[in-house]
Amino acid sequence: MINLFKTYNPLNAVWLAVLLIVLRIGYLFNAPSEIQFLFVEPFARLLIPVDYEFALSPFLNIFLAGLLVFLQALWFNRLVNSFNLMGRPSFLPALMYVVLTALFAPFLILSAPLICNFLVIGMLYRLLATYKMPDAKSVAYDMGMVVALGTLIYLPFIFMFLVVWAALIVFRPFSWREWVAAIIGFATIFFFLAVIYYLTDRLPDFEKIWLPLASKFPAHIQINSYNYLVLIPVAVILLLCFLKVSQLFFRSYVQTRKSFQLLLVLTVIAGLSFYTKKEFHLEHFLLCAVPLAVFFSYYFLYATSKWFYEGLFVLLTAGIIYFQFNTF
């Protein structure tokens, strides 16, 4: 399977769709009768005043989620190959993204983090391109607006603002105008939201939007212990990936090295931003799927022991399917 996706062949999109279905079909047997789907934060419902929590059947919900993942995987694969992050074109980024977005059952349904991944991929397109731009103020302003829009969908997305600033640090010489442009872009969206709150006599509630940002970071996370088992091959692949990156890091182009630094920052920020939600949900970590898919792809593309990396991939996919049929 890995060797098939190491080549950049458009026909691999068909095999990608087949794998996507295989990795999700097991969940249909254990899916709940109702699946809640909230595509905006409560404070943004003034913009979309409709009742949508249980609008879709479980099958349609899972089908649409799979379709979104497939489109994101193709777009993400094009991003990685366009900026030559792997050193040579392949379909591995799309493959790894599809696999990572199937790790846990909450990943398989429509959710705000899944929708926000479109914004994450779009942001990476613009931020990686700033390396060769003479001026990036317009990009910084646009990225500030994108972060604000993502925040309306999913509050923890606000921390992607730090990713925008990290990109300016990594790719650009310091310019305070670019940093301020990002702030202005973010403020523009919330200015209009504040106006709507004012016109509906709810301006005092506007301050409550930011209260979750002051929440204490949790001391522990409750997760089904069986879910840890599927993370074992994930941890092994991630460790091998960083070992491979460390071996080839300084042989890569400067832009590639800087891109990997930004992806590492994105992974950390996306992973730690879950604490702003009162209730912990695993689907939050879908925000980490994009950067982790790049790291995973890098390992599998340059791994040399075929029996080992193919076996490791089979173990990962088999574990995902097994835990979909066994909910314990």
Automatic annotation (TrEMBL):
InterPro entries for the chain: DUF6427
Pfam families found in the cross-reference section: DUF6427 (PF19992)
Keywords from the named record: Membrane, Transmembrane, Transmembrane helix
Residues spanning the membrane: 12-31, 52-75, 95-125, 146-167, 179-199, 226-246, 258-275, 282-301, 307-325
UniProt protein name: DUF6427 family protein
Species per Swiss-Prot/TrEMBL record: Mucilaginibacter calamicampi
